[in-house]
């Protein structure tokens, strides 16, 4: 049953993104930014963690989870370190994702040669 809910929730997030591109005529970059901000706002109100517990990968894999990680890390470190924790907390939870994106992008660039 958990797989079904992950599929449904992840699919709904993707449908929202597609509707933003098709209906609101947003570019993919604007859509991605909107979804990141939506994940950040949902975490600020305490709504994203229950969604992750309910849907698992359906909520933790889409781009909205990146916004969730940014705010969650900032708020966690704010409680521990004060205002300087807002900056350091953002990098603490998201460093692995950003680092892996850079590494895999570099490796893909070595293998795939763009035409042009």
From TrEMBL:
Keyword Membrane: yes
Record key words, sorted: Membrane, Transmembrane, Transmembrane helix
Keyword Transmembrane helix: yes
Any coiled-coil regions, as ranges: none
Highest taxon of source: Bacteria
Transmembrane residue ranges: 83-112
InterPro entries: Spore_V_AE (IPR014204), SpoVA (IPR005562)
Name of one Pfam family that matches: SpoVAC_SpoVAEB
Name of the protein: Stage V sporulation protein AE
